[in-house]
Amino acid sequence: MNYKIIPYEERYQKQVVDLVGSLLVYTGTISSSDLPIDDEDLDHITEVYSGRGGFWLAVSEDQVIGTVALKDMGDNTVKLKRMFVQSDLHGTGIGEALLQSALTHAQKQGFTKIVLNTNEHMTRAHHFYEKHGFKNIGKTGTQLHYELELV
Questions:
Q1: Where in this chain does the record put each N-acetyltransferase domain (predicted)?
Q2: What residue spans define the domains of the chain?
């Protein structure tokens, strides 16, 4: 499949919301009756992920097929957020490319640590993050917490 990783563009906002919502339903995190999702950060992507952070899209034929974001948390720590790939494209390398884009950006920005939270239902994501060196550092409610030290 041909795709490219690009910085977020406003014209893709609805596609981002739809992709994230469909994947939250797919993983059992929310029910289809909760769609469309109403999420403040997705309504203001440019503002929320500005500064040393960022938001990237995997796009194929002008369709958003994946997302990843970094949010500056201060103290040289960045939070990995919105890591999603269209469910029928899992295992194709798109997630790897998105993660690599985020890691490269984080290192260029001088961050020393990446943290993330993921729902306990997203077992595929747990394996993905652990495969890429993230360490599970605990759990709060249904959220598992991971971190990766950048060198």
A1: 3-151
A2: 4-110
Closest CA to 70 of 93, 52, 88: 52
Q: Tell me how far apart the alpha carbons of residues 105 and 54 are, in angstroms, rounded to a whole number.
A: 8
Residue in the structure block whose two tokens are 């950006």: 105
User: What per-residue string of b and e applies to 4-19 under the rule 16 or more CB within 10 Å gives b?
Assistant: ebeebeeebbebbbeb
CA 78, CA 107: separation in Å to the nearest integer? Answer: 10
Q: Please write the tens of the pLDDT for every residue from 35-91.
A: 878 788 898 999 999 999 999 999 999 999 999 999 999 999 999 999 999 999 999
Residue written as tokens 């990783």? 5
CATH homologous superfamily for the domain 4-110: Gcn5-related N-acetyltransferase (GNAT) (3.40.630.30)
Per-residue tokens: 123: 């077992």
Non-local (6+) Cβ contacts of 128 within 8 A are 95, 99
